[in-house]
Predict the structure.
Amino acid sequence: MTNNILPLFIAIPLAATFLNSLIGKKVRFLSDLLSAVATFCLAYLSIYSIFLLKHSGVLVYKVGGWAPPIGISMVLDGLTSFMLVTVNLVAFLISIYSIDYMKKYTEKWIFYCLFLLMVAGMNGVIISGDVFNLYVFLEIAAVASYALVAFGTEHEELEASFKYAVMGAVASSFILLGIAFLYSISSTLNMADMSMELAKRGASPIVLLVSVFFLMGFGLKSALVPFHAWLPDAHPSAPAPISAMLSGVLIKSLGVYAMVRMFFSVLGITPQVSGAFMMLGALSMMVGVCLALGQWDLKRLLAYHSISQIGYVILGIGLGTPLGVLGGLFHLFNHSIFKSLLFLNSGAVEYAASTRDLQKMGGLKEKMPVTSGTSLIASLSIAGIPPFNGFWSKLIIIIACIQAGHFVYGLWAVLASILTLSSFMKVQRYAFLGELKEKLKDIKEVPFFMKFSMVMLAVICLIGGVLLLPVFFNDFLKVAQDTILAGQNYAGIVFESIK
């Protein structure tokens, strides 16, 4: 019976979407309520899955009662549980934030339908046990995100959405081609079964070709340099809650998670792929932060920092060492928290001051103390200042680089962090400090629900380091780390759980 929790991660948001489409237009407050309740249930189930995994081990749900590899399966292991908590915790807080923020848009119910559809797609990607359904859910989340980027229907939003959709279609084509080639040599779509077949065959030119396709496809979804061209336009154009979702969890679930799952659990990580991960990670770190330094549009600045911070995650996981994988995973979670908070802060500033241009701001701390305080916490977190959560994950990645003998990558990580600090000092200086401009004297702090979400995320930034304590570490981070390090043993673990 415990296996029955898995389809709920897809069923709940889909049911809420359906109900929203039926009654959300007629009874407006029900859209807010349905979205909040659905995402709260998902966040609760995600946290519950940690305890379920601890007591019951890896869970496999057989769709329609057909056992894999013949039937479709959903799998809950350490990495799945870790990602579910990350995605659904952020989604819940963003849903609460949207109650007040989305009042300035018409047709709020359509926003919630698309938002919940995107959450359903991300959860589907995470729990899917076969590659084709991973692709299907990836497309569901991606198509919903294209529409959400264009939600404001202004010229800027429509152009960014079109660019994002074209690049997303190219990424999806690479991924689908890779899946087709894998199916041609393994005659199965189940990840565990495919992993066993590929392990028997050993290295082959087709697997090498698929590795290149997946690097390009999932690299585009992750916005790694040089596949990042869509992100600086898409993230600033979307409404603030969607910018937070895109940067906080979408690029991680559709990009980083799917790439790590396919390379470590199915294809098997090789030194060449590991080297490519580290190179792309280091390149993304430096290019992203350097491009961010010259930005005056607050949301565009944050978008470039998303590219930079994803570089840390990929660098850590690409090291392939226990410490590197731990650092990469921990930074993935931390980045979801502080980057979501920063985008919500930018939304609060735009909501109150009606501008994203840092040069037109100044002295907002006086009128918006909650937004200013939470923005400072998030800025210190992303810059890696102790004792905030970003410090611990960056420190682990840097130590892992040195431990593995990759001193240059460790140095790049330190330099990128220093440049990140300088970039966010600019944000604090021009947006919140200094004299309050005359035209901003009448602004006031944002409504309660927006403040609530920002404060909750700021608290997690402040106390995030406690996740390294044994009482939390073993059941949250370590199980995800062990899943990645198990590599192609994933197949044996899954089939053992079915028995």
In short: Residues 53 and 77 are 7 Å apart (CA to CA). The two ends are 15 Å apart (CA to CA).
